[in-house]
Amino acid sequence: MVGPVIYTCGTAEQKARYLPPILKGEEWWCQGYSEPGAGSDLASLKTRAVREGDHYIVNGQKTWTTLAQHADWGFFLVRTDPDAKPQQGISFLLIDMNTPGITVRPIITIDGGHEVNEVWLENVKVPVENLVGQENQGWTCAKFLLAHERSGIAGVARSKKGVERLKALARAETVEGAPLIEDADFKRKVAELEIDLTALEVTELRTLAREQAGRGPGPESSLLKIKGTEIQQRLTELALEAVGSYGAPSVRGFRDMGDNFSVGPDHAHWTAPNYFNMRKTSIYGGSNEIQRNIIAKMVLGL
Question: Of these residues, 35, 118, 149, 204, which one is catalytic?
């Protein structure tokens, strides 16, 4: 997501340096937003950047940093004016993840995977030229990025593929000798999911039309985030419901006993890890509760 920010807010030099390797997939980026005490209330972040000559000295901690263990670069929100109002004292920095003073520590999630991390920054020197936008005005860049991120989180195409996989799974599973897909109750649940997904796709197309017309995403990005993640979670819930107890051996902890306990059909083994992993979707990118507050304020005027 850093590409659109650099394209919109960056200097000509920054665009020439960073955009080509992003487009070619030659450099991997991570996002340094959340902190242990600043998640949904992101503006309360405390990671500090102090300017010393032609460098910033950065100290602080970030958490839930996705795939930071593989990242070449990170884009970080840092506080550059501790005396300003929260949103007005934040800057947007691009930081080389190989810079001395950066430590990446894994956070193992409930599905057993290493996807997220905590990142420690201790006296990290960052060239002033890596500042995107103006000092203390990074909140503008952050809001721009989040609006596009939330639109992307909707994941309509991915959920369409998920529905196809769910139907295939339901055709393979049986209830009293008949395919699960023919069970009236389960069929109703799948149909309701597809109806919601179709409605979400229409909202996404409206958002893309705004983008094409030169207007960024508005409050509908919050709608996309809420409904998109709810659909993603329901997909994994129905998949786990379909395979029943066959999903249990893939739960974290079973493997720690010296065997992976692979029982049941192969298509069942991914259902439990997916279910647990997708619990995060309603939290990251701004929790769904926060998105409802945004809709209440910007759409309903409450």
Answer: 149
Residue 249: pLDDT band by 50, 70, 90 thresholds?
Answer: low
Domain boundary among 136, 170, 199: 136
Cα separation, 44 vs 208, in Å, equals 31
We report the CATH number of the domain holding residue 287 as 1.20.140.10
The total number of structural domains that make up the chain: 2
C-alpha span between 159 and 148 (Å, rounded): 18
Is there a catalytic annotation at residue 220?
A: no
Q: Are the CB atoms for 74 and 119 separated by under 8 Å?
A: yes
The residue that leads in pLDDT, 86 or 94, is 94
Percent of the chain with pLDDT over 90: 63
Query: Where would I find the H helices in the chain?
Result: 2-9, 12-24, 138-153, 156-172, 184-212, 220-243, 271-277, 288-298
SS3 15: helix
Domain limits for position 99: 2-136
pTM for the whole thing? 0.83
